[in-house]
Write a structure and sequence with these properties.
Its cofactor is [4Fe-4S] cluster. GO terms for molecular function: catalytic activity; iron-sulfur cluster binding; metal ion binding. Pfam families: Radical_SAM. The protein has two domains: 69 residues, no CATH class; 76 residues, no CATH class. It is elongated and about 55 Å long. It has a four-stranded mixed β-sheet with strand order 3-2-1-4, with helices on one face. A three-stranded parallel β-sheet has the order 5-6-7, covered by helices on one side. The two termini are 30 Å apart. It is α/β, with parallel strands linked by helices. Bound molecules: iron/sulfur cluster.
């Protein structure tokens, strides 16, 4: 199993328990809510190995900890959110390189928030518990701040999909 990107693991406390997700393959495990403190303590203490229940869960969801890095650098610890939202779709731009006849957009010019406001939006989504973030447009990849937006969402522990026309 190859680790595609850094910090692929996310722990997210939810009403039903502690969700542990491998963003490389979208596999997940649910642990008891009481496990949150255990995990946070172990990360803070930089223990050489994850606590037993997490070691098992990490293996169960198919994440192989690289031998050249400690386990805790691969996990984003999310705070308990204020709500239990799951999924959000965000149209980050109206710009598009296509002119499809069926398109509901008008000018297809760049209209999107500046980066500071995007970060504020992501902070709110994080607090609301958003796990699955779908980024779309327009053409999402034509957005001048696409990379910054994607990275900021990733750092906040979201599982991201991108809707694109592929051109
Ligand atoms: S690719 Fe999508 S956003 Fe772009 S013109 Fe076609 S329908 Fe509209």
């Amino acid at each position: 199993m190859t680790n595609i990107v850094s910090r692929a693991l996310v722990s997210l406390p939810r009403e039903e328990g502690l969700l542990l997700i491998n963003r490389n393959n979208l596999r997940a495990a649910l642990l008891p809510s009481e496990a949150v403190a255990n995990l946070e303590d172990a990360v803070a203490a930089r223990t050489p190995y994850p606590p037993g229940e997490f070691g098992d869960a990490i293996a169960e969801i198919g994440f192989a900890i690289p031998p050249d890095s400690p386990w805790y650098v691969h996990i984003v610890l999310r705070d308990r959110p204020a709500a239990n939202f799951g999924r959000v779709t965000w149209e980050i731009t109206e710009r598009c390189n296509f002119r499809c006849v069926h398109c509901y957009l008008d000018e297809k010019e760049q209209r999107g928030l500046p980066l500071t406001q995007r970060l504020q939006v992501l902070d709110k989504l994080e607090r609301a518990g958003c796990l699955w973030l779908q980024i779309t447009g327009g053409e999402a990849l034509a957005d001048p701040l696409f990379e910054e937006t994607y990275r900021a969402a990733w750092e906040r522990g979201m599982v991201i999909s991108v809707l694109t026309n592929g051109a």
